[in-house]
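Subject: ATP synthase subunit a

B.,
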Amino acid sequence: MNEGILLASDIDFMIHGIFKVKVFGQEVWITDSHACILIVMAVMVIFAVIANRKLKHATEKPDTFQNIIELIVEKLDGMVDSTMGKWAPRFVNYISTIFIFILMSNISGLFGLRPPTADYGTTLALALITFFMIRFNKAKHQSLKEIWTGMCSPLPPWLPLWAPINIISEIAIPISLSLRLFANVLSGTVIMALVYGLLGVIATAWPAALHVYFDLFSGAIQTYVFCMLTMTYVSQACGED
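Prediction pasted inline below.
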C-alpha cells in the first residue's frame, strides 16, 4: 500500500495504509483517514485550549481573536436554540462539537489532506451516534404507548399496517445520514484528484475555484444538513415532555 495523506501527491484518491499494528493477534492498518482525523482533532483541541485561556482573561474591548470566538459560540448557540428549543441546552455542546469537526474535516482538502468524511467509516460512526441518541431519548421521554402510536402513524394504533414501513424508515436513518455526507464529500475529493492527476503542472492556480465550491461551500452545506437533521430527529424523539 502506498503511504502519504496528501491528495495532490498522486491521482489515486483511495484510502491507503500508512503502517500496521497487531491487535489481539490481528493486523490492523492505520490509514491516511486515521491520520487526517488525528490532525483535525489536534487542531480542534489546540484551538479549544487557546480559546479557553483567552476567554478566562477576556477584556471589555475584545480583540480580533476574542471576537471570532464569541461569534462562533453565538452562531452555534443560535442555530441549536432555533431548532431544538427547550432541549437546546442539553445538546448544544454535542451539536457544536460535531459541527466544527465535520466542517473542519470537509474543508481539510483546502490544505492538501484527504477529508476524513470521504471515508464511510467516519460518516457511519457519526450517524450511529445520532441513531443511538434518538433511540435513547425516545425511550427516556416517551411511553411504550406513544412509541407504538408513532410507529403506526398515520393510522390508529389498532391498525398497524404502516408499522413495518415506519420501522424501516427508522433503521434507514443512520444509512441515509452517513451516505449523504460521505457521497457528497467523496465526489468532490474524486473530482479534485482527477483534476490534479490529469492536468498535472497545468493545474496550478485555477483549481482554487473548484476547491472553494467542493471543499468550502459544499462542505459547509453538508455540515449544516447533517447537524440540522440530527437536531430534528433528536427533538422529535424527546417529544413534548
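Residues 7-238 form one domain.

T.
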